[in-house]
Write a structure and sequence with these properties.
Structural class: alpha+beta
Domain Peptidase M14: 298-569
Region (Disordered): 1-21, 636-684
Cofactor: Zn(2+)
Oligomer: single chain
Helix content: 25-40%
Family: Belongs to the peptidase M14 family.
CATH class of the largest domain: Alpha Beta
Number of strands: 26
Catalytic activity: (L-glutamyl)(n+1)-gamma-L-glutamyl-L-glutamyl-[protein] + H2O = (L-glutamyl)(n)-gamma-L-glutamyl-L-glutamyl-[protein] + L-glutamate
Strand content: 15-25%
Distance between the termini: 30 Å
Amino acid sequence: MSEDSEKDYSDETISDEDESDEDMFMKFVNEDLHQCALLTADSFGDPFFPRTTQILLEYQLGRWVPRLREPRDLYGVSSSGPLSPTRWPYHCEVIDEKVQHIDWTPSRPEPVYTPTGLEMEPLYPESKEATVVYLAEDAYKEPCFVYSRVGGNRTPLKQPMDYCDNTLMFEARFESGNLQKVVKVAEYEYQLTVRPDLFTNKHTQWYYFQVTNMQAGIIYRFTIVNFTKPASLYNRGMRPLFYSEKEAKAHHIGWQRIGDQIKYYRNNPGQDGRHYFSLTWTFQFPHNKDTCYFAHCYPYTYTNLQEYLSGINNDPVRSKFCKIRVLCHTLARNMVYILTITTPLKNSDSRKRKAVILTARVHPGETNSSWIMKGFLDYILGNSSDAQLLRDTFVFKVVPMLNPDGVIVGNYRCSLAGRDLNRNYTSLLKESFPSVWYTRNMVRRLMEKREVILYCDLHGHSRKENIFMYGCDGSDRSKTLYLQQRIFPLMLSKNCPDKFSFSACKFNVQKSKEGTGRVVMWKMGIRNSFTMEATFCGSTLGNKRGTHFSTKDLESMGYHFCDSLLDYCDPDRTKYYRCLKELEEMERHITLEKVFEDSDTPVIEITLDVESSSRGSDSSESIDSQTYLLKLTSQKKHLKTNKERNSTIASQQNAREGQKVYDRGHLLQRHKESNSDVKDARPNEADNYMVDYFRSQLPDQGLV
């Protein structure tokens, strides 16, 4: 059912505030026209039938017979059977084999590749002698999405060529797979072309394919020739990912970073005049006749998500405080799930809880965002005292996969509408962009019931290392508000200094980004509205410098997010005010060391927004601010649970009160001075927000 209306909490369960007035669990019309049997009554213009979706018309013995719709499944995930089957565009060819991988973390961090300067740059002019060994022709059968089927194309699949020699065999017609064409250009050398996003001619970045019929110990070369981005992490040491089924079975080894002679370079322009870029690498397979896979990033499919959610739903403990519902259906009629996570209460106190919103995978090729989301869910649904405290304090709304259609077909950026969903949060086209439309509507209704203190959309980044955030702000804002919106990212950088780079964070609103979830939620009134960007590569910070991120590294960011959230909303505001002071000190620190030619540019804008260009720069280049931040990381205190905090609040109250009075007076005075000539450009925000914020009293459980 769609998240289209909100109700109060009941006495029995978490609340029905996500239920819609209209039923989203419609029976799908059978794709074969001669077997079409079900239609809703509002599909007919006959005045005999009322316009309703609750009456189904079943074709029996040559006439339409009305009947009532079956009762809907309240939570969208049934414990009595499997989840909804995966639906594909009807023309997509899909193999029957189900691809599965084990979870595995290397015992040591995997280093990035160090160029030798001797890497080759293969160029492949068209030749009639080259042999095409793999070609996926189904992608271009339709100019736009038409309809979907479970399992995709039902005609017999064209089998890959079964070579008797040592030619490699390729396959990518499985969930999230992407490979368009493979040409054998030499005995052990292959030219690969990845498929653009369906119904577009661009966004060639994600690849994920299977290789068989190999020989161990032979040096093979693979070259992907149709990337479109001029800059890539592959030129900064990133290695492709490799998976061997024999290694997984014999040694329980999963995805690992591999490759030598890695080079990313510009090649000859394509037929349309655009320049393309190639990625080349060499590799020796560890086993003969193995089944292996290569991928751009650790795969995380729609089926992986459904199996994870099914485990939650069937868990008698976690299912009590995590309710899974269907936010909406996609163009292909796949389900977009929404999770409501909070401790159920039997009274109206739950309405005092503030809300936190997390979303991920609006861009399907950014699989690292799903691993961060998994880490967050693992922690918040765990049995630790801090997880319990978070569930007692907040209502979490989580949309773990906004673009399941794109994930299923192996797109990098777009949905089946051929558009980037993260540029269409302002769109009114519900039918074209259902997941972002319903997400925005859910947030709007949620804000009518309770305060939303933070929104975060999880993404992956293809050009920069580390993990960082984009926020929303403008140089014409008051300095106090300006600094306040940087506190949560600063706390996050102090909690995980070897992964999160505060100096790489940006806080501005570009015109081209006004349709993103981050900007739209900020304009709706959520002050802490962020995009978290996770590199496809690894870290340049601390002990992890020069190494790739593993899935466990990405999952750990889910814990650090929760840790920082508790720091940010701690009733003891010491850490909060300390971060404000540190941001002010950072401003003064940079002011003393730098002289700016443009006197109209605010110092803090340059200090905290060191990557104001669209491409940005490596965070390690910001030496002054980065060095200063590293000095601050050692000041973080151990996070306390609610019980531990309450036992110390009374003894610390008197000593802290005097400091609070000074801090608040100091900040309010700065706010008053900075706002004297500045007006907030965002509508519907009171000028005295910060006064009310600091005057509000925080209860023992953490929030009003």
